[in-house]
């Protein structure tokens, strides 16, 4: 089976900007694009295949037709759903302060899956910040009181960011992407989010966006993050971004030729975040999203480009 090029799905949330169009060249059809869903089998936005034998079909349809274990790999079969969702995120404005539940809570309360995720910072304006957990350990009651009395931002850990910074955000970690950050996000395949604070903004309907304070307090870890921020080393050409029971993510700076492979364990997803080149002879450029099926075997990545490769 061939490598599949995927069409992104774009979301025009109120905090989005134009960098997905300006920097990546996407024709989104939108005035602003907050997110590009680059690998998605989620009902809120499914990728379709661009070209080849499966042109126009959703990735879900291809998986169903060809067989989940054959296409996705044995490691995916322990999940009751396609396991990951990969996004590009352009924050022109601050995202809401939010938190995601773990699998147990999400399944019990929302009939959805939880969300652990990583953020890799592709670019950031001077002074851009992210919120990553709490400065110091507080109680649940203190957390709720801070929301109610307007002092929450004083309790949260704000981190200045630059290209190459990495955040591992376990379910239950209060977080927010700040204005000026361009992010690649690899997450569990879930759209379950509890908003804690939204800067008193209104949505497209002119009404304040819904908050989910009680649920957020229920699921939040109210201590500093267990996993610190990590930073890219100058001159680094290969970097392990994440390795956990949900996904393994590597970033490569390709300057000549890199040989990768898939076997029976998992597919590979390739997100081109800079430059251009070829993947097994197929021309690719910044912004391209490729699904390499399990059992494909070895393939060559050539050119001058930065890629993020995800597997299960």
What does this protein structure show overall?
The longest helix has 10 residues. The protein has seven helices and 22 strands. With 312 residues, the chain is mostly beta strands. Strands 1, 6, 16, 17, 18, 19, 20, 21 and 22 form a nine-stranded antiparallel β-sheet that branches. The mean pLDDT is 95. Helix 5 runs antiparallel to helix 7.
What does this entry show, briefly?
The chain is mostly beta strands and 312 residues long. The protein has seven helices and 22 strands. The longest helix is centred in the middle third of the chain and has 10 residues, at 140-149.
- Structural category: mainly beta
The major β-sheet equals: 9 strands, antiparallel
Beta-strand percentage? 35-45%
Distance between the termini: 19 Å
Helix content: 10-25%
Strand elements, count: 22
Radius of gyration: 19 Å
Taken from the alpha-carbon principal axes, the silhouette is: globular
Number of helical segments with 4 or more residues: 7
Q: Give the mean pLDDT.
A: 95
Write the element-wise H/E pattern from the N-terminal end onward.
EEHEEEEHHEEHEEHHEEEEEHEEEEEEE
Q: List low-confidence stretches.
A: none
SSE layout and pairing:
Blueprint: E1 4-7, E2 9-11, H1 19-22, E3 35-39, E4 41-42, E5 45-46, E6 48-49, H2 59-66, H3 68-72, E7 84-90, E8 97-99, H4 103-110, E9 117-124, E10 129-134, H5 140-149, H6 152-155, E11 156-160, E12 166-169, E13 175-177, E14 181-188, E15 194-197, H7 213-219, E16 238-243, E17 248-254, E18 257-262, E19 268-279, E20 282-285, E21 289-292, E22 297-311
Antiparallel strand pairs: 1-6, 1-21, 2-3, 3-7, 4-5, 7-14, 8-15, 9-12, 9-14, 10-11, 10-13, 16-17, 17-22, 18-22, 19-20, 19-21, 19-22
């Amino acid at each position: 089976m061939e490598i599949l090029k995927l069409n992104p799905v774009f979301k025009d949330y109120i905090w989005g900007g134009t960098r997905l169009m300006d920097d990546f060249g996407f024709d989104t059809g939108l005035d602003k694009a907050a997110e590009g869903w680059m690998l998605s089998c989620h009902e809120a936005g499914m990728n379709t295949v661009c070209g080849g034998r499966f042109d126009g079909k959703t990735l879900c349809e291809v998986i169903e037709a060809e067989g989940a274990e054959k296409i996705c790999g044995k490691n995916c079969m322990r999940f009751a759903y396609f396991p990951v969702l990969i996004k590009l995120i352009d924050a022109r404005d601050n995202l809401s302060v939010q938190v995601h539940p773990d699998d147990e809570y999400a399944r019990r309360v929302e009939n959805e899956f939880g969300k652990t995720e990583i953020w890799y910072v592709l670019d950031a304006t001077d002074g851009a910040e992210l919120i990553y957990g709490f400065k110091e350990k507080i109680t649940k009651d203190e957390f709720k009181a801070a929301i109610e009395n307007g002092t929450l931002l004083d309790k949260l850990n704000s981190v200045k960011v630059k290209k190459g910074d990495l955040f591992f955000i376990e379910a239950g970690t209060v977080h927010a992407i700040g204005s000026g950050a361009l992010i690649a996000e690899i997450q569990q395949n879930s759209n379950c989010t509890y908003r804690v604070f939204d800067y008193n903004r209104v949505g497209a309907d002119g009404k304040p966006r819904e908050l989910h304070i009680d649920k957020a307090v229920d699921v939040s870890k109210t201590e500093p993050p267990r996993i610190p921020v990590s930073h890219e080393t100058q001159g680094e050409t290969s970097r392990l971004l994440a390795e956990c029971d949900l996904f393994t993510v590597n970033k490569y700076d390709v300057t000549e030729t890199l040989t990768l492979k898939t076997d029976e364990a998992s597919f590979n997803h390739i997100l081109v975040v800079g430059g251009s080149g070829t993947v097994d002879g197929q021309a690719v450029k910044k912004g391209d999203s490729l699904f390499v099926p399990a059992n494909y075997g070895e393939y060559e990545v050539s050119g001058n480009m930065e890629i993020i490769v995800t597997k299960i």
